[in-house]
Amino acid sequence: MNRVGAVFASLLVVGGVIAVPPAATNAPPAPEKLVEALGSDAFFEREAASEALEKLGAAARPALEAAVKHPNPEVGKRAARLLVGLHRAAEATGKFDVKMVRLSYKKLPLGTAVNDLRARTGIKLTLDGDRIADPLRLVTCETGDLPPWEAVQAFLDAAGLRESCEVELPVPKPERTRRNYVPPPAALPLADAVPITLIDGVAPRAPGSRSSAVRVVALPPSFPKHRLYLGGGSILFHFDVTPMPGYHVQGVTGVRVTKVIDDANRVGAAGTSREPSGFMGEFFDGFAFAVNGGGGIVIWDGDDSPQRPTSFPNPRVVPVPLNVATPGARKLKLLEGAVVCEVNVPDQPLATVENVKGQVGVGVEGLRSTKLTVLEARPVTGKGGILRVQTEQPSPWATGRFNPLGAMLIVEEAGGQTPGYRVRGFDAAGKPVRLTNPTNSDNSTDELVQVMVNQYTCPDGIPAKLVFYGPKPVMVEVPFKMENVPLP
């Protein structure tokens, strides 16, 4: 070894260990720097900063909260939108987790297999008898553990079936129980109540997200409601958004697409869903509308006879306007976004009276227009006590859908998860106190508020605290990602 080599080697060896130069780190930029990039003059830099902040999640919240009041209005607007998305994503945590399903059908009749799959997943699967050649044919489908929607798709592939997604659904005909009586129209169904109709035929697997309780599928290019506007690359695209039953999804507010990349690797403009106009627009001119308690609509044209629509838009179908950068593009290489849902989370604390004996006659207002008032708290020798409570909650008419359980006050011991409204009592240590033998002494309902007065026996004594529980609506976002989405 020459002298220069010996010197170089001695510099690298420290205590018998070869010193390796530190590797370059790929740490993401600080949230504060990303926030400043939200106001960049370049659109793509603003979009890249938004995407990076969204991926940081809760770690970006302090920087985004400070950026809401940024002097650059573009920074403030984007920061506010990202904060809303972070809040909705946090609200969705754990609400759409699913139990895995393993299929093991060996030469089982088709109808029997569909019934079993419906029972195991809770998804409303139904065979269209007019478009199924042989419902008794034998089907074999064996899978590993899959999310329910993935299991359904695996079964369709094995059984030679496909879904039929209808644009319009017929309005059920109301039953006329007596002469000269016009029954109220049927309530418009939620998306999870619309059956998944299965017919014969093999179709390519539709791009979509099937890992959670909310399935998002890109409808095929042949879907009749797709609209392609020539010359500008604008497309009115449609998704099938179907929540599984039992997850308290009250409605899909919309679909927000955040990234569009076509097959030429060009970035298009994302969009947000818009309400379909056909159902109401075709009836609007010259007509009057009245929403009945069941959530349905009666339409008058000026005379005494109500006009009823015979169909309504499929609530599972959600249109989203998109702009594709490459005219004539045949597919989207990447499509990302999120479904915005309203979830009615049951059995949530809405109003609390902390000091029951000291708060007699004092009304405590809570969430969602609720109110809890202790009218009487009277100890009774040998019987614990008597408690009389007034509760106020949203009227079932105001919510647009009559839910019998949500329209009455349910009082029971802590631990039950029955949907609806209920009062629970707790002692000073926070342990449940029994409230038994409820007696309703008053009940009044107007268009907005339902007021109820109930009297209870308290065998354990007057509770130190009362909590009014009920359903609480929250907005959540469920992300999705699709690849190779065919375009109309």
What key attributes describe this structure?
globular, alpha+beta, 488 residues, Leucine-rich Repeat Variant, 19% helix
Any idea how many domains? Answer: 4
| Alpha carbon gyration radius | 29 Å
Distance between the termini: 71 Å
Strand content: 35-45%
Work out the number of β strands.
27
Q: What is the mean pLDDT? A: 80
Overall helicity = 10-25%
Biggest β-sheet description = 5 strands, antiparallel
Q: Which structural class is indicated by helix and strand composition?
A: alpha+beta
Number of helices: 9
Unreliable stretches (pLDDT < 50, length at least 5) are 1-24, 275-305, 400-419
Q: Please state the overall shape, judged from the principal axes of the Cα atoms.
A: globular
Describe this structure in words.
It is a single chain. The longest helix is centred in the first third of the chain and has 20 residues, at 73-92. The protein has helices at 3-12, 31-37, 43-56, 61-67, 73-92, 110-121, 148-159, 278-284, 396-399, and strands at 13-14, 17-18, 101-109, 125-127, 138-146, 161-163, 168-170, 196-200, 208-209, 214-218, 227-229, 234-243, 249-262, 288-291, 297-300, 306-307, 311-313, 317-323, 331-353, 363-365, 371-380, 384-394, 422-426, 432-433, 436-445, 449-457, 465-486. The strands form 8 sheets. Strands 9, 10, 11, 12 and 18 form a 5-stranded antiparallel beta sheet that branches. Strands 13-19-27-23-24 form a 5-stranded antiparallel beta sheet. Strand 23 (422-426) and strand 24 (432-433) form a beta hairpin. Residues 1-24, 275-305 and 400-419 have low confidence and may be disordered. The protein folds into 4 domains: 28-92, Leucine-rich Repeat Variant (Alpha Horseshoe); 101-169 and 187-276 and 313-344 and 477-486, no CATH class; 281-312, no CATH class; 355-463, no CATH class. The chain is α+β, with helices and mostly antiparallel strands.
